[in-house]
Design a protein that fits this description.
This protein has about 500 residues and is of the alpha/beta class. The chain has 22 helices and seven strands. The protein has helices spanning about 1-10, 15, 30-40, 60-70, 85-90, 110-120, 140-150, 170-175, 190-200, 210-220, 220-235, 240-250, 255-265, 270-280, 285-305, 320-325, 330-345, 355-365, 375-390, 430-435, 455-480, 490-504, and strands at about 45-50, 100, 130-135, 160-165, 180, 395, 405. β3, α7 (about 140-150) and β4 (about 160-165) form a beta-alpha-beta unit. α3 packs parallel to α4 and α13 (about 255-265) packs across α18 (about 355-365). The longest helix is centred in the last third of the chain and has 24 residues, at about 455-480. The N and C termini lie far apart (about 145 Å). The model is unreliable at about 1-5 and about 400-450 (pLDDT under 50).
Length: about 500
């Protein structure tokens, strides 16, 4: 019997620990401070629009505002006392002065007409009558239009608070008549701090790793995080172990992600197939695993780029491990892996065979070569140019026996182009003195043969020098003004004989 009464009295964490004062609202100080100043100064607007993602305190803040303006014994800094009859009635949901309406189920013109009829009556206990319309974007266009006149010129005792997760669906004519407050997403640190406060007061033994995981799973929503917290407590009891929590929430273990990155570093293609099989045997979703890998690579990239763990949302115990893994890769390597994983995460949604796509992505990441920074390569080329300019090495063009080489300055340098050998019947001496040697350019399409001991920068510079000299030689050969060679005695005799036959 006692157990049944205990079960009936149980309240979920989100309701049990709902903030009752402005100072208790987590992560929305820019809004609570503005509202407190407005209440203290008496500059209370007749309509407010609270927008933001789910579970960040929109409805809670609206209720605190309702108690603050109707409290019979307000505290300093415009905080409600939460003890007077007006405050107790609002907390217990029986106040006639604060009416909460669900916009999704009361979205017609008739519902707004009823609201307008009841809004003319004065409040019963407090100073103001407040209508809190949740999910106001669900109202129809006709309902919005029916509310315009009342919203523009309301009675002095009437206030409206609209809450929505999709403010872009609210008509501009409504937005222009409201003070708009944008609620921020909850930070991981704020959620962890609040959950730690709750767990300490309830006597729950839970580690920071578990709280960080719960906060990340909540995706910026305090209410979602507290619901996940209740689920973990129901499974693990008062002593929460990370392994049991991962089983309860069916989370992908972080060790899988560190193992994938280690396989990529070691180019262990075999273990990738084994790892994929283990993921499937544990029942994990491949899409969720790839999205987790994207976040893991993003954290490693942030650590590598910033040389700090300030931008990584994880427990302090994991910081050292992130730094250790980040040292094994370059920034370009992380960017390439992050690109592979991001594209795969998008492709897995529509992939007919997700397992093959998952394995192919990991294999591509493991098989890719290490990235060579262009700045490093340019630095090597600059050093090589200085060595050539100072005479330490000499780059030679291609000849018939080898494509390029680098030798010491004292060695004999082969000429890039040689003159043709003399003809069988040499011309007279005075003609030979005036003749220019014919220049023969080496074939351009000959494939260069790499020489051992030369770096990529050496080969690039030598190849560019060879091509330049070939172009100069070809140009000289075309423009050379070389006189014709003298005829041999046999050619003269044949020419005279042919001429005589034509005359006859």
């Amino acid at each position: 019997m006692e157990n049944q009464e205990t079960k009936k009295e149980f309240l979920v964490t989100a309701r049990k620990w709902r903030p009752l004062n402005f100072c208790d609202v987590v992560g929305q100080e820019h809004i609570t401070t503005t509202l407190q100043n407005a209440v203290k100064s008496g500059h209370i607007h007749h309509a407010y629009l609270f927008s933001g993602c789910r579970g960040v305190g929109k409805t809670t803040t609206a209720r605190i505002l309702a108690r603050s303006i109707n409290c019979l014994n307000p505290k300093e800094n415009a905080e409600p006392c939460n003890e007077c009859e007006s405050c107790r009635a609002i907390i217990e949901g029986r106040s006639l002065d604060v009416i909460e309406i669900d916009g999704a189920s009361n979205n017609s013109v008739d519902d707004i007409r009823k609201l307008r009829d009841s809004a003319r009556y004065l409040p019963v206990n407090g100073k103001y009558k407040m209508y809190i319309i949740d999910e106001v974007h669900m109202l129809s266009t006709s309902a919005f239009n029916a509310l315009l006149k009342t919203l523009e010129e309301p009675p002095a005792h009437l206030l409206f608070v609209f809450a929505t997760t999709e403010p872009h669906k609210v008509l501009p004519t409504i937005l222009s008549r409201c003070q708009r407050f944008e609620f921020k997403r909850m930070e991981i640190e704020d959620i962890v701090r609040q959950l730690r406060t709750i767990s300490d007061k309830e006597g729950v033994n839970i580690s920071d790793d578990c709280l960080v995981t719960i906060a990340k799973k909540g995706d910026g929503s305090m209410r979602d995080s507290q619901s996940i917290y209740d689920q973990v407590i129901a499974f693990c009891g008062k002593d929460v172990d990370y392994t049991k929590m991962a089983d309860a929430l069916h989370l992908v273990d972080q060790e899988f992600f560190f193992r994938i990155v280690d396989d990529v570093r070691q180019k262990n293609l075999t273990d990738i197939f084994v790892l994929t099989k283990e993921i499937l045997n544990k029942g994990y979703d491949l899409q969720e695993c790839m999205e987790g890998l994207v976040e893991h690579l993003r954290n490693l990239t942030a650590v590598k780029v910033t040389n700090s763990t300030d931008l990584v949302e994880t427990s302090a115990d994991m910081f050292a491990r992130y730094r250790e893994v980040a040292e094994a890769f370059s920034q370009q390597d992380f960017l390439r892996m992050l690109t592979f994983a991001s594209n795969a995460a998008n492709a897995l949604r529509m992939a007919p065979q997700p397992r093959i796509k998952f394995e192919t992505t990991l294999l591509q990441m493991a098989a890719m070569d290490s990235t060579l920074e262009i700045s490093k390569l340019l630095g090597e080329i600059a050093v090589l140019k200085k060595q050539i300019a100072s005479g330490e090495i000499v780059a030679l063009p291609q000849d018939n026996s080898r494509s390029m080489s680098a030798i010491a300055p004292s060695a004999q340098i082969q000429k890039p182009f040689e003159a043709m050998p003399p003809a069988a019947n040499p011309a007279p001496a005075e003609v030979q003195e005036n003749r220019r040697p014919e220049i023969i350019a080496e074939p351009v399409n000959e494939q260069p043969k790499p020489m051992p001991g030369l770096s990529a920068a050496d080969l690039i510079i030598a190849e560019r020098q060879r091509e330049s000299e070939q172009k100069q030689a070809s140009h000289a050969a075309k423009n050379a003004d070389v006189p014709p060679e003298p005829l041999t005695e046999l050619e003269v005799e044949l020419k005279n004989k042919f001429h005589a036959e034509r005359v006859n």
